[in-house]
């Protein structure tokens, strides 16, 4: 008999947990968060032992590389580098990873970021040896499959955007913005005057003015109306022959569709300007509306948001730029074109004299193209449309579920995301930051907070289409429980997160006095 | 919220104080309260030109990055450099230690277009 006493482990709240960290005695959070065994983990520098090594390499034979390098360029030995075994390194990073929250752990409703789940199939295709092992300098005749994939992806992205041509080169959304504005500038320049100004609504992503400024443009901010929309008369008042372009995100960062976009585009076009679309929120429009049909001249995609390539972690990403026929000659190189029965890369500026040139090494981040193409083919046209519809439905469901508990600063109908604020919690002295921190205790990643800037104390929620109704119900339940707690136990909220491996961090001190460099003997705290 | 009577104000929550022919500029108590802990201040250099209503710098808190708008046009003649190392002065003492720049105005009459303390206090009451 293996268990003669009949003892069973308790799966409920453990009474002994009361002796542990604050919050450990609570029932599991509505996202399933419960106390677990986490490891403190020192820095790599504080691990290991002198002379320890992860791998055994044979002694070098032949001429010493150092003998080939001028002495002035050689560096002396560095003392104090970490010396660890392979297992110590593996445990170090595995333990750190358990402190993290990702989409594979739980709901991640970070507004404007579209943290959807990436299907494993896209990963599998990107790892096929024929793609993963490809050399970017291989001759075109050896890489026809890869070129065909890029060609078909370029055609598909152009079709989805309602545009004429797409550059796959940009490495991320903001890089796409930069590229799109370079194309706009080149188009104006070809007509004799690059112009000086770019119009940007006050709900824009911060990267918009940055991209305009990097291209030498002065930014003019446009106020959105009380309904959260940009109004044609605001644009008309600011528009003149010195404005190169307007940058519009549609739906905007309040999740609201800019329903005056056609009229706004006509006003800008009427004075010789162009309309740039920030495609950060394309997830709301996929297969339903095409930016090209709405009057946009340029739009960048964020493949990591809309087409489920990896997100966060600093890349690599991809931010393809789709443009109208008039702007296509100015797109960066390389471009893939059909060539007889096959495909070839256009790399020679002599063939595209209007091109703004090269903006990324080799072909761009090719692995992302494979993932995006796999995702596109897996879903098909109907699936893409369903993606947008479900993304909007899920956001609307959360919006309805939280009404009454949180204040909605813009009651206008929203699409794939919804922005609340902390007005209803203000009387209890509870802020958006407290709500966000308490969500961690439930096992959910907090939404985007304090953005967009037009809403004080913004809570910007984007559940995406990949969450189930049960997951949304659990999230709504947690948000409502927090709203109740703001009235009944505000101090507990202000102390949150109670269950996290680290409780509330001193963000002010981290920003004012950041410690960016380890030195021997330094102490935490 | 502290709104000193002897200062003039912008709708964007900057204050302006006459100092001889010059104008000292900072952000209001309300502004610092809304921003939360200020962690970084980016100011112009002495000799830079500023224009009324246009950005002359940036203030960053743990919540957000906000632009600073000049209450009057003119030349920057003094900058509160210690703020770069000690931005907390903006929170702790927005009207004295937390001042940002001194402007030699090119059009001193622009000062008269600014809000009085009563008008600014009224604006805050509307926002609340």
Characterization of the model:
The complex is a heterodimer of chains A (525) and B (128). With 525 residues, chain A is of the alpha/beta class. Chain A has two domains: 123-378, Aspartate Aminotransferase, domain 2 (3-Layer(aba) Sandwich); 389-503, Aspartate Aminotransferase, domain 1, CATH 3.90.1150.10. Chain A has 15 helices and twelve strands. Chain A has a seven-stranded mixed sheet, sandwiched between helices. In chain A, strands 10-12-11 form a three-stranded antiparallel sheet, covered by helices on one side. In chain A, α12 crosses α13 (469-488). The longest helix of chain A has 37 residues, at 366-402. Chain A is globular and about 80 Å long. Chain A starts with 85 loop residues before the first helix and ends in a 13-residue tail after the last helix. Chain B has helices at residues 29-35, 82-85, 88-92, 117-127, and strands at residues 8-9, 14-19, 22-27, 38-42, 49-50, 55-61, 65-69, 74-79, 101-105. Chain B has a single domain, classed as RNA polymerase II/Efflux pump adaptor protein, barrel-sandwich hybrid domain (OB fold (Dihydrolipoamide Acetyltransferase, E2P), Beta Barrel), CATH 2.40.50.100. In chain B, the strands form two sheets. A six-stranded antiparallel sheet of chain B has the order 1-2-3-9-8-5. Helix content of chain B is 21%, strand content 34%. With 128 residues, chain B is an alpha+beta fold. The mean pLDDT of chain B is 94. The interface between A and B is small, with 11 and 12 residues.
């Amino acid at each position: 008999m293996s268990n003669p006493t009949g003892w069973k482990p308790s799966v409920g709240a453990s009474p002994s947990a009361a002796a542990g960290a604050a919050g450990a005695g609570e029932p599991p959070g509505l996202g399933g968060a419960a106390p677990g065994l986490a490891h403190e983990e020192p820095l790599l520098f504080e691990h290991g032992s002198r002379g320890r090594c992860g791998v055994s390499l044979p002694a070098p034979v032949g001429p010493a590389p150092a003998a080939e390098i001028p002495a002035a360029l050689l560096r002396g030995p560095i003392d104090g580098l970490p010396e660890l075994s392979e297992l110590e390194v593996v445990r170090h990073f595995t333990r750190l990873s358990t402190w993290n929250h990702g989409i594979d752990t739980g709901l991640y409703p970070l507004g404007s970021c579209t943290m959807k789940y990436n299907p494993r199939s896209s990963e599998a295709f990107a790892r096929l040896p024929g793609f993963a092992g490809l050399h970017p300098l291989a001759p075109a005749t050896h890489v026809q499959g890869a070129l065909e994939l890029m060609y078909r992806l370029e055609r598909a992205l152009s079709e989805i955007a309602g545009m004429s041509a797409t550059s796959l080169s940009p490495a991320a959304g903001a890089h796409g913005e930069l590229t799109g504005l370079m194309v706009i500038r080149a188009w104006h320049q070809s007509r004799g005057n690059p112009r000086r100004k770019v119009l940007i609504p006050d709900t824009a992503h911060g990267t918009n003015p940055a991209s305009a400024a990097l291209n030498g443009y002065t930014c003019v901010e446009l106020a959105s109306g009380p309904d959260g929309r940009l109004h044609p008369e605001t644009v008309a008042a600011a528009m003149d022959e010195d404005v190169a372009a307007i940058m519009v995100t549609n739906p905007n960062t309040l999740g609201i569709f800019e329903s005056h976009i056609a009229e706004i585009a006509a006003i800008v076009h009427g004075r010789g300007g162009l309309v740039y679309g920030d495609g950060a929120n394309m997830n709301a429009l996929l297969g339903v509306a095409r930016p090209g049909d709405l009057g946009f001249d340029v739009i960048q995609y964020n493949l990591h948001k809309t087409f489920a390539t990896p997100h966060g972690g600093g890349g690599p990403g991809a931010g393809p730029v789709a443009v109208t026929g008039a702007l296509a000659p100015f797109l960066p190189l390389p471009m893939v074109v059909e060539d007889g029965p096959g495909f070839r890369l256009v790399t020679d500026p002599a063939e595209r004299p209007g091109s703004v040139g090269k903006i990324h090494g080799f072909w761009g981040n090719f692995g992302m193209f494979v993932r995006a193409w796999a995702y596109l083919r897996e879903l098909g046209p109907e699936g893409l449309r369903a993606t947008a519809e479900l993304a909007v439905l899920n956001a609307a469901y959360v919006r309805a579920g939280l009404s009454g508990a949180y204040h909605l600063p813009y009651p206008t109908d929203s699409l794939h995301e919804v922005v609340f604020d902390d007005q209803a919690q203000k009387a209890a002295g509870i802020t958006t930051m407290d709500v966000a921190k308490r969500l961690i205790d439930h096992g959910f990643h907090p939404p985007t907070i304090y953005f967009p800037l037009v809403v004080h104390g913004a809570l910007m929620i984007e559940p995406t289409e990949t969450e189930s109704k049960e997951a949304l119900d659990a999230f709504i339940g947690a948000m409502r429980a927090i709203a109740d707690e703001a009235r009944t136990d505000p101090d507990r909220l202000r102390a949150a997160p109670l269950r996290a491996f680290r409780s509330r961090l001193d963000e002010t001190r981290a920003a004012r006095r950041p410690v960016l460099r380890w030195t021997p003997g330094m102490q935490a705290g | 919220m502290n709104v000193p009577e002897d200062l003039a104000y912008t709708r964007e929550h900057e204050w302006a104080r006459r100092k001889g022919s010059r104008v000292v500029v900072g952000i209001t108590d309300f502004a610092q309260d809304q921003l939360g802990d200020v962690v970084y201040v980016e100011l112009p250099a002495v000799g830079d030109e500023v224009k009324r209503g246009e950005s002359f710098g940036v203030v960053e808190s743990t919540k957000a990055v906000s632009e600073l708008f000049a209450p009057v046009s003119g030349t920057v003649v003094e900058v509160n450099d210690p703020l770069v190392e000690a931005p907390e002065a903006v929170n702790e003492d927005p009207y004295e230690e937390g001042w940002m720049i001194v402007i030699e105005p090119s059009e001193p009459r622009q000062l008269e277009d600014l809000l009085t303390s009563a008008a600014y206090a009224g604006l805050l009451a509307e926002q609340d």
